[in-house]
Amino acid sequence: MKKKVLSVLLAAAMSTAMLAGCGAGGQGAAVPASDAKTEEAPAEAPAEEAAAEEAPAEDAAEEAAEEEAAPEEAAEEEEEKPSVTVGSGDKGTIKVWVADAVVDFTAKEIEKCIAEHPECEGYQISVEAVGEGDAAGNMITDVEAGADIYGFAQDQIARLVAAGALEVVNPDFEASVKSENDEGSIKAATVGDQLYAYPLTSDNGYFLYYDKSVVKDPSTLEGIIADCEAAGKNFYMEINSGWYQTAFFFATGCDLSYETDNDGNFTKANVTYATPEGLEALKAIIKLNGSSSFQNGSALGEATNCAAIVDGTWDSSAAQELFGDNYACAKLPTFKGESGKDYQMSGFGGFKLLGVKPQEDEDKLIACDYIAYYLASESQLPRYQEVGWGPSNLAAQNSEEVKSDVALTALSEQLKYSIPQGQYPGDYWNLATSLGDSVRNGELSDGSSDDELMSALQSFQDTCISYAE
User: Do 453 and 328 have their domain in common?
Assistant: First the structure.
């Protein structure tokens, strides 16, 4: 048993290392909070290559003509990317990058900001569609050519600070930002003891959707499982995901975090899975896997006979449709460890932040700060109303509209117990999947000895640490 589990984890580490060698960058790409995995594109089939070589001359000419036209077509497609310019004057330009879904909304809000704050007058402000993931990568690659104000996911903040792509939050706004937003978003916007970004949302994480006609008390995992088993219904959670799996390990007090240098390279891993706390968490995962009601998964669209699922706000519509009048949401439950102690399930939380690039022109920097603060304060409730982004702003969270959104309310409660997702090596996600798979296929089970379980945790921990060496 012991040798087999160790070999599985080692094989996973070796295979992911080989994949990383074929991919981009040694430090690994950050995995988004949705835990989406990217796969390498398969090589073109040899038959397709042969067919291309045997193409008639006229076909080759047509292909050459298409190739010549390609740059122009690409340029036309680039020009079609949503972009709105507001403001006027000769003070210069301010470039703003936001997600496609909020380009028009952001432009309208900036117009309001200009009308209220003369510090923002006299600039031509271009609002362009650049998503949070692309924005961070673009800024790190070329700060000078990047946006003056841009949205990004919180797991990129350390790299952006190291790249010199973030100005600290204006001291005139710092106290207000800290008092107006929830604790999780402030932690996500902070590096060391310095606030570097303006929180935009607190809406990326996971919580519990459930059928209240089946689950009578969602506060404990044991109660949820008992109700599902009695009703012959399924409970879903993705225990072989490095994102969801942490709900157990962080709950018992385990650490899994990385530190980076000024170039964004991983320099230190803080991992404490091979501990009594880690053993308690792993045994809880094994116990859950042993339930007849348990199904491994986190997508409602793929769930069958479901009465409860650990999922995110992106599936709220599907959950409402599935459960109908019995639709309900709650923070994650507690679970009872083998020691008899109750643990509140934790996990990762995700936040959108708004950053301001350092400026040589002090007046332009002030204008950027006013715009960023406005978009991150006055605009949060209107943004929720228009596109559904969950606010980090406490006043917006307490509005009747947001409070009536039971999914966001449950997530807000869960984020109090969650940890903002930082940067993780790409190989970590695959290694975590292997650990979960060892439970799913029975290699780690309630028949495994403590020594065998601890050996698997030690192998996992050592491999995680090796990613920073």
Answer: yes
